[in-house]
Amino acid sequence: MQTFALLSKTALQAWPKAELHCHLDGSLRLETLLDLARQQGKTALLPADSLEGLAEILQQVDTSASLEAYLQWFRYTVPLMQTREALRRIAYELAEDAARENVCYLEVRYAPVLHTEEGLTLEQVNEAVLDGLRAAERDFGLRIGLILCGLRHLPETFSLRTAELAVAYRKRGVVAFDLAGGEAGHPPKHHLHAFYYARNHLLNLTVHAGESWGPDSIHQALFYCGAHRIGHGVTLYQDPDLLQYVLDHQIPLEICPTSNVQTKAVADYATHPLRYYVEHSLAVTINTDNRLFSRTTMTEELWRAHTACGLSVQQLREVVLNGFRHAFLHWDEKQDLLRNVEASLKQLTADPTQPSLTH
């Protein structure tokens, strides 16, 4: 039972935010999904031909039986993301949506190999995404980093090629290399060469781990792949020794509450280990994962962490600051950003005129 006063969603909207775990192909606007399908003559690929119909069907994401079932929803977005124009538009709109809710630092991730089905090269795909993100940076004033993902279920040669692409763009907007996709039966250690290449070329590393597979997945991500951050990490609590290691080294967890419930990584918000992790001083961040499929925003995720997972205002503030503390930014840049964010949060949480409490 909560005993603290609740922040209003309006107050949370005003907080400066950093998002570290957001998938490009899971974060289209619903209107854009339908518009692109019509433009490209691919409406037959969608489960409905109206916004109302699509919105209703997307409610079924909540009944996904597993992570693997949840990932099947991407069959509606990826086929529409095979042109430079579509990729640029989707990247730009995602950043615009983030900026509207005061996300001032955003890391977007995607797997370039998924967008080469109609003839684009990996480089053309990446240039299109970066072009959209750069334009959004100029227009909306937020800062953006791009993360390239290898895919667990594909041969390691694809991951290595993606790591090479990430390294080639390391000083042109790409900030990290990641491994994504269904965990079961696809251990991170099968992609060692890709991670070695990225690490050996000074690239940041994050790995999806501990979402639909247990703490061994996190263990491999850390000690085989050298991950600097862990995507999700929901099952970490099942291995107290590993949890202690993650705590001792302050390895950040990229928690996505709504997605974690949808993929059945947790049964519900009340049993999510988020509060346990925060109370035990782990470096937790909150993220959307997939804005379209989870029908969410950063404000919504923070609101659910506060109201459904039980984080206090002070705990929520620290989680928000963690998003900036563990961003894949150079140290000096990060400290400058943190100082500004801390000052802003101090003012917002101290000003009695702010619409901060709900009664």
Automatic annotation (TrEMBL):
InterPro entries: A_deaminase_dom, Ado/ade_deaminase, Metal_Hydrolase. It is an enzyme of class 3 (hydrolase). It holds the Pfam family A_deaminase. Its EC number is 3.5.4.4. It comes from the Bacteria. The keyword DNA-binding does not apply. The keyword Cytoplasm does not apply. Residues 16-342 form the Adenosine deaminase domain. GO terms for molecular function: adenosine deaminase activity; metal ion binding. Keywords: Hydrolase, Metal-binding, Zinc. Its cofactor is Zn(2+). One of its GO terms (cellular component) is cytosol. Belongs to the metallo-dependent hydrolases superfamily. Adenosine and AMP deaminases family. This is adenosine deaminase. It comes from Rhodothermus marinus.
